[in-house]
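Long-time lurker. I teach an intro course on protein structure, and each term I like to show students one example going from raw sequence to a predicted 3D structure in token notation. This year I'd like something fresh instead of my usual example. Would anyone be willing to generate the tokens for the chain below so I can use it in lecture? Attribution to the forum is fine with me.
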Amino acid sequence: MTALAFTIQPDQICLAMDTLVVSAADKTPLCYQTKFSILPHLNLIIAGTGLSSLIANWFHFVNNNMVVRDIDHLNIFATGSLLYIEAELQDTDLTTTTLYHFGYSKTNNRYVGYAYRSAKHWESDQLPDALGIKPEVHVPPTDNIQFPQFLIDIVSEQRRQDLLLPQPERLGIGGEIQFAVMENGVVNVSTVHRFESYESDYKEMAKKVGEN
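-- Reply from a regular --
Happy to contribute to a lecture. Here you go:
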């Protein structure tokens, strides 16, 4: 799993995700990974939470098989295509997997977001102009939102609460926070925070590789 925080506004989308991947078996660090993908020819970001292999397969499928113009055009075919990909992953637990599309709608002349949830058979759900957080944490109201710090604070709180859980129940949030901004037809990506456990987690990952 992962931490995801985003804001959708007509003229801008901001997105933050952590980079830590943990073992499903014991929730120990496996690797660091970029958890969203950018398709500049569609002015699109694809992000996901849940089964990483399906998320990666979906990015590959969209990039190599979809003849579409933008996020709205892709939305027409997304549900059927995801059902097809799901059928190829038989006996795989997808109950917690959600895919997110963020991009510019030429029809509506604004930025939009869509969610596709495995629990709802990948039905398209257009996201409102709002703050989105997964896993959910309380965000104190403020009139002085500054990016990227606002999303750094949210992901840090997601990590803090995750660490309070027994290890078998943890999502595994850590590594670094990567921050993307979509505006004026441009996508900018930067690494904006590194958690204090970055080096110790990296050493544990390297030790596992050395043992293989």
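Some talking points for your students: The chain is about 30% helix and 35% strand. The domain at 4-211 is CATH 3.60.20.10 (Glutamine Phosphoribosylpyrophosphate, subunit 1, domain 1).
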